[in-house]
Design brief:
Elements (H helix, E strand, L loop, with lengths): L13 H13 L9 H21 L6 E4 L2 H15 L6 E5 L4 H12 L3 E5 L9 H10 L3 E5 L13 H11 L3 E4 L15 E5 L10 E5 L25 H39 L3 E4 L9 E6 L4 H10 L19 H6 L6 E5 L6 H21 L21 E7 L7 H9 L3 E11 L4 H12 L2 E7 L6 E6 L3
Parallel strand pairs: 2-3, 2-4, 4-5, 5-6, 11-12
Antiparallel strand pairs: 1-7, 6-7, 8-9, 9-10, 12-14, 13-14
């Protein structure tokens, strides 16, 4: 079964397996002890730190091993904010950061700090000028957080330019490099960096946190003497050794593999819109990771599509709101202002073949068509006021669709069925209480060439009224 979810996690790299087993024999002792076994464990830990630091592009004494990438982010953010508390308590984060960063930002706000989000364009790109404007707008910022590449759509961020803006303003930049670090070091004068070993085939439960010398940093209490006080507790040396060894091994093949996978991703980006009607490929076309492509399918339930592809033999993921685990759209897709329904993220692991991609492209149209066929045909009700009155004849000036209590993609499907009930220039109002409608109705208008007039509270009851003018 082709595994196309590499951005979530990779299977253990063969080098990771070998290093882990070898380190179990020699790396079990306390590396802080002076006896022979302790010295042997210390040598393994130091060698792993040097290997990882070389891959990151920092000094070994700037790098800490943590229990996960999430822990690295939380520790890095908390330590940097605490270390710069006298400079200010304002935190800037991009709107498309990983949820681990956004959760830490919420914790900072709950503790009395302030947080501002920096928006992105429809490709998911953070503009350095927007970072500069946010820093100038005040209040005094303590930290800026911008990922090196997005985990849902693959867009690479201009980290070097943003880091330079932060340096000029005297504000450190923390970079979540979980997605990009396997493919190469992060350029620029960043101040803090976090990553996660399972993204490159290392063991789960190992993260990296790099803090440049000179960055004000105050580890959260309680602290101990291990890992510079930034990761208390006994080091998992076998896992750390495996993480460092697999990172080096992945990097050795990254250049050639990136070029090969990028060509396969280009093929998917180009052919999916031709094979499947009403599809929007999202994310930057040029400034992106080599192995990630994301697209959204109009009038498709995302969870059902993932199951259909799984039955066809393909493991993919989704940033769509249409899953059983959440009732809100992906915050990344929402920030980009793109379609969220029927969202599929394909992230190719090293070794993916052309045959795998061709077979995926062969089964995708049938999978999408099957999911669309399962959806209930749109039911619309008429009247210029509240939905539920007698249907008006085609060509009238107004029409109201009651989609209250219905989840995506039903409100958009019902809008599509209703738009023909009004004359050109007429207005369809959709009543919906699904948060995804706020994103998907404007996106549908863009794809269909209709005019989105905006939203307003539903005066007669719950939900929101979305108004669309028919142009074609």
């Amino acid at each position: 079964m082709p595994y196309f979810d590499a951005a979530s996690s990779l299977p253990p790299h063969p080098v990771a397996r070998q290093a882990l087993l070898a380190a179990f024999d020699d790396g079990w002792a306390d590396p802080s002890r002076l006896h022979r076994e302790g010295r042997r464990a210390r040598m393994l830990l130091d060698a792993a730190r040097e290997t990882a630091a070389e891959a990151v592009g920092c000094r070994p004494d700037e790098l800490t091993f943590t229990s996960s990438g999430t822990r690295a982010l939380h520790t890095g953010m908390a330590g940097a904010l605490a270390g710069r508390a006298r400079a200010g308590r304002h935190l800037l984060v991009s709107a498309v950061e990983h949820s681990a960063v956004l959760h830490a930002a919420e914790a900072h706000r709950a503790a009395g700090g302030t947080v501002a989000e920096i928006g992105v364009d429809r490709g998911g790109l953070v503009a350095p000028a927007d970072v500069a404007a946010a820093l100038a707008a005040g209040p005094a910022a303590a930290l800026v957080c911008v990922q090196s590449a997005n985990h849902e759509v693959g867009t690479r961020q201009p980290v070097a330019d943003i880091a330079e803006i932060g340096r000029a303003a005297g504000v450190p930049l923390l970079v979540d490099a979980a997605q990009s670090l396997p493919w190469g070091p992060v350029a620029g004068a960043w101040s803090l960096l976090a990553a996660s070993a399972h993204k490159w085939g290392g063991p789960g439960g190992v993260g990296l946190l790099a803090v440049r010398k000179g960055v004000r940093f105050a580890p959260a209490s309680p602290v101990d003497e291990r890992e510079s006080g930034r990761a208390p507790g006994f080091e998992n040396i076998p896992a750390v050794v495996a993480a460092a060894a697999s990172l080096r091994a992945f990097r050795a093949e990254a250049g050639a593999e990136a070029a090969r996978l990028a060509a396969l991703v280009d093929r998917i980006r180009e052919r999916v819109p031709r094979l499947v009607p009403d599809v929007e490929v999202v994310g930057e076309a040029a400034h992106r990771l080599p192995h990630v492509v994301t697209f959204s399918c109009l009038h498709v339930d995302g969870e059902a599509l993932l199951h259909a592809l799984d039955r066809a033999g393909f493991a993919v993921s989704s940033g769509s709101s249409c899953t059983s685990s959440t009732l809100t759209p992906s915050h990344v897709l929402r920030a980009m202002g793109v379609l969220s329904e029927g969202n599929v993220r394909v992230s190719l692991p090293p070794g993916t073949t052309e045959e795998d991609v061709e077979r995926f492209l062969a089964v995708l149209p049938e999978a999408v068509a099957g999911v669309r066929a399962q959806l209930t045909p749109p039911t619309v009700t008429g009247g210029a006021g509240r939905a539920g009155g007698a249907a008006e004849p085609a060509g009238t000036g107004t029409f109201t669709v009651d989609s209250l209590g219905k989840r995506c993609p039903v409100p958009v499907i019902e809008l599509a069925g209703a738009i023909g009930r009004v004359a050109v220039g007429g207005v369809v109002t959709v009543l919906a209480d699904d948060a995804a409608a706020r994103l998907d109705i404007p996106a549908w208008c863009t794809m269909r060439g209709q005019e989105y007039l905006g939203e307003s509270p539903h005066g007669d009851g719950p939900g929101t009224a979305y108004r669309v003018r028919r142009l074609v």
